[in-house]
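Handout, section 4.2: multi-component inputs.
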Amino acid sequence: MSTEPSRRDILRFSAQGIGAIALGELLVRDGVAQAGSVAPQATDPWPHHPAIAKRVIHIVLCGGLSQVDSFDYKPELEKRHGKSLSSDKKPDVFFGKVGLLRKSDWKFQQRGESGLWVSDLFPHLGRVADELTVIRSMVAETANHTPATFQQGTGFRLNGFPTVGSWLSFGMGCETDELPAYVVIPDARGVPAGGSINWSNGFLPARHQGVTVQSSGTPIQDIFPSQELNPQTEQASRDLLTRMNRRHLQQRGANDLLSARISSYELSRRMQRVVPEVTELAAETAATHTLYGTDAEPTASFGRSCLLARRMLERGVRYVQLFSGGAFGSPRINWDGHENMIQNHGREAARIDQPIAALLTDLRQRGMLDDTLVLFTSEFGRTPFTQSAADVVGPGRDHNEKGFSVWMAGAGLRPGMAYGQTDEIGWQSVENPVEWYDFHATLLHLLGMDHTRLTYYHNGIQRRLTNVHGKLIDGILA
Amino acid sequence: MSLWLFGLLMSLATTTLLAIESGIDQGGAELGGVDQFDRTIAPLLAKHCLGCHSGDQPQGELDLSSRARAIRGGESGAALVPGDLKHSLLWDKIESGEMPPEKDIPEPERDLLRRWIESGAAWGSDPIDPFRYSSDARAGNDWWSLQPIKRPPIPNQPTAATAIDAFVQQRLQNAGLPPSPSATPREIIRRISFDLLGLPPEPSAVTEFQIQYERDRESAITDLVERMLASKHYGERWARHWLDVARFGESQGYERDHLRNDSWHYRDWVIDAFNRDMPYDQFVRLQLAGDVIDDQAPQTITATGFLVAGPWDAVGQSLASPVMKAVVRQDEMEDYVGTIGQAFLGLTINCARCHDHKFDPITQEEYYRVAAALAGVHHGSRQVSSAENRRRVKELADQIREQQDAVAALDATVRDQLIARRSDSEIDLPPRIAPIARWEFRDDLNDTIGGVPATAHAPARIADGRLILDSGGGIARTESLDIDLREKTLEAWVKLDNLQQTGGAAMSIHGDDGRTFDAIVYAERESQQWMAGSDLFKRTQSFSAPAETQADQQFVHVAITWAADGSITGYRNGEPYGVAYQAESPLHFEAGTWYVMFGLRCQPAGPERQLSGLLETAQLYDRALSPDQVKASYVQEQLSLTHDQIIAAMTSAQLAQRESLLASIEHLQSERQRHRPYTVYAVKPKPPEPTHLLARGNPGQPIRAVAPGGIAAVTGVKADFAVGQDANDADRRGALADWIANDQNPLLSRVIVNRIWHHHFGSGLVNTPNDFGFSGGHPSHPELLDYLAAELVDNGFRLKHIHRLIVTSETYLQSSRPREDGLAIDGDNRLLWRKSPQRLDAETLRDTILAVSGELNRQFGGPPYRDFTTFVSNSQFYEMVDIDSPDVYRRTLYRTWIRSGRNHMLDVFDCPDPSTTAPKRSVTTTPLQALTLMNNSFVLRMADRFASRVQWESDDQITEPPGAVLERIYRLAYGRSPADDERATATEFIESHGLSAYCRVILNSNEFIYVD
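Output:
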């Protein structure tokens, strides 16, 4: 009997579900020199139907972006500025304070050929408005940040479920075996509330967890030895390890797990070569840096993140999660504009507006937008009335889960459109309300997956990203 | 059986109808009989129709669950006309494809329904019990795992050494596979050591075992197993397995993720339970209802830490909106119900929160019955103390009080002398009462009497002997005070930034529960008034005093007393302030559960609760001062005698007396500290709210109230708890524990013996340890499972008995080497023709690295180590750090398992997210693991320590052929000597690259990380 199983054996072995071996890793041993891919782990083979999009950049705005100040233009709100909400029912808002209605602090304009309304909060995004597919009728289940953020990321309000990126890694595998399928770039000011829970694999195998990559400093934890080692020693150590492991394998006969471990060391060596290359932003032209704003404040940090995200996608990463904003606390480092919208949203938007517009422009120029999706979401929106005493137009807005805006851009979408409607003051979704389940179902659809078929057995249930819900948002599909 | 039906059945391989027995008329003239209907037609109706057309509010008012109602029909008229297909609306809708919506009924099933109507629509159980029989779509009441345990006869297998071997070999024989030969003694001792203790055997133990093994294999193994089962490391190893199931985390999760400093007591309780071999039924009972069984014993309360080991949405609890709050509570209930169902019963009861279980015989109502049994359960820190300790603490408190009074009296004497000397006029002062805490804000925030430390939150700060409280959010708070407080007086010298501000507090006594407080509040309800602020104004009334007009110009003295009779009296500048009033009796703040805040009225912080001004002095008394006593305090403070001045005026005799009193107080206090109650994170029950069956799980749509109860489909135990809808928490949880931890409950023992099997073999007899329902696995060896379950019950639920049976079986002791015939026939090794090799799990890997490097700190139990730094800014944040200290070189089990800060190294080796119950771990192989083991600073440091250790322990020099050193490395890491070729390779490598580099390779090697 041969000591190492054939690839066919491995496939059989894997199909029977013992352990999780990245098949791509085993290709290395078969002498395939260039980067391999990592096969999906889901049993129902991907794609379920032809995939329009192959990869995703997900920009997550922490804290709650105000729809009425950004993408949901409401002339009626402008008229009723300073009036009270003429609603019989007292709104059930997070902090329980319902002030007077407040118009947008930023002027709205129709942009581009599409005439999409985008406010001056995002002037750069306004210039690429024809790329955007805005959903103005999002509805979340809770106005509590973290459960709402979990739902945005996992479909569930609770801790312990896999995030979108983990599902994609599990369901689609990765186009490269030299980089993780699922990369997370936190805001340089800090990680979001809940930290790594926001890129947790939940109950999926640990290899589907998001890997955080820093846009400066050591990009990936433990990618290189924590202390300086002589390169000859490093090479000799790896050679000795392989030799010892092969000897050990020989004595034990066919053992896929042992061979997979040997391959994983070879692969890790390749990651050590590729990661520094891909994170080396200096390789980009000066024009590109200027486009992304990496050379100026306040865009430098997020500009680097966007540029890094694009480079990751080029090298085959499946899903990059980019955070705008960190956890809750004082001073605010996210979009949670309870106290003062002008200061808060003004500051946050200035950090990301130009870089994201640059990202869209760049992806378009490179032809990548044809099979890439860019998502721009926030866990909920903000109230059209202010968070203040009942007879005051306060400076801040409370959480609003009843109606808010997100956008997508890229492959398979109808660009330059707005889908759904909130009421005349931009408070509650009234036309084509969209839940996260629908958003996720549509995302999976564009990626070639039927959301009811991407499942993983866990404690009694074939779990899905969309729980038992989810319908395609047909109106935004090209 | 009729031929047509037989043909039909054969074509139904993938659909519902598994078992149709004979008894049907030739030609299908009637498809009838109660049993027949229940087995064939009822499941079809249940699967396709009853989801909408049954229950309290059937769609279209059509209820298809009973024959009469089906015939009567709904809004659109009669649905079923027996024998008349044409006039049966039911058939019409099915045939047209209109029903069921968005789904087609497969042709064979449709055909069966047609024939059934044509043949007269004979009915069976009425109304339909969709749970009666299992089908290929779902489990019914006859599902295997729900049936009573019957001790099976042991198969006659002459070559089988033990009962387990007989069951296993019987199946192997049927598959034509022989078992594998025994593993080597080295493999056996390593296997058992890792399995039972989670640590590698010491090299000397390996040698001794090998010798004994050659002499007498059986006794060598038995001795080894007994020794290991008696080791306290056994409890550490198996507690970790249980903590996975318990979703044990030590922080709240969600947004805030605050640390639970007192949840480790539960972890220690689990370790102790395993080590003492606590009967499993008792183990379960205590975790469900320990505090109900005995609410005085620390251990029983600690056990309930199981129920609240999961995440908890702190923000959700304090939501303003009752609707959102109700959703949060329902999510919390699902966590409890889901975890107890899966952990103890292998039932996914949580799947029935919004509708009847899709696959198992669990109704939605039953979900809410189980939830009702847990309706009194809430998260919290609970103070525990033994009766003896409680008595002693009280005794000590009295003694301390006595001596403190003596110090105060001594000080008062000197003070009075000083005052008398200073003032010409005779001041007639009543004796001054000593406060229990006093803050002078001179150099720090510490109380000058009890030394309780406090922290200022920026921008609050101390300057010129005053605490400056800005409007920008600055407050100060103390640590918890270890004093029981009922009666009390709060006293503060305060100056306000302005008189128009509202709602802030000079000083507040705040409970750990985050709600209760008593405070000196300025202008909360009435402008320019001091008042006694309290939670929900429970103890707050107006003093109806004149408006405050001076406090922005000068410091004013404000005091409020809360007397035992409930009267509350205010004072300003030493004089009564307005009118005293009567309130409910004062709150009882238990020792260790409250703290003092300055500036903030109550939690959470917010500008509307914030005082803007200065504090000069503040005092707290554990009694309600009389008017004279308040006046004395005011006047004396006015005279402004500092502590230092008083001390300076003492005679040496007085000083000596004072010193000796203080020393004695300190001594008593430290003794009290040792006996003091401590808190444990556990169930903190509240009177249960009514539980309702909720339409689609929506708290806004209650259907009817339900009483606590169990799942009817579980045989042997009564699902009716005979506990009313208004029962108290103790009765509810007591009944639940009786139902679950019952030797007649067949799931209790089946589920736990399977878990034990799972951890010994890497895969359970049922390979979904948390799910014994339809979606879970079928047992590979059903009789063996029942044999083990029966053994457990008959041996007093002692888990060590099951370990003994397993690890002394030849099945377990087999070689792990693959065989061609085995791989070909049973690649998964479900039949156990060999022992599957196991990769060390994350914790064992780290523990083993520490052990071989000589760095493992075997400190047993106690507070966890921290591999992070942390700070709180609203939420709590954790930053992982690699600390080189024996304090963190404890077994990984003792890590602080926070939810948002996961440890990178443990994570990549498949340590699960502690937010959800994890019955088994995935075993993955990834390049990130390779990078971590090669490069992580901890691993590299351990390689260095490993190298120094072996060098130090061996006399040999590394410049010589590294004989002894190498021997030691191999024995520690692999439990064997190096072979000649290995020796040669190693020597060459070590000469060029050093011993540390070599040890790093060893720690990365497959032989190190895989157990044969």
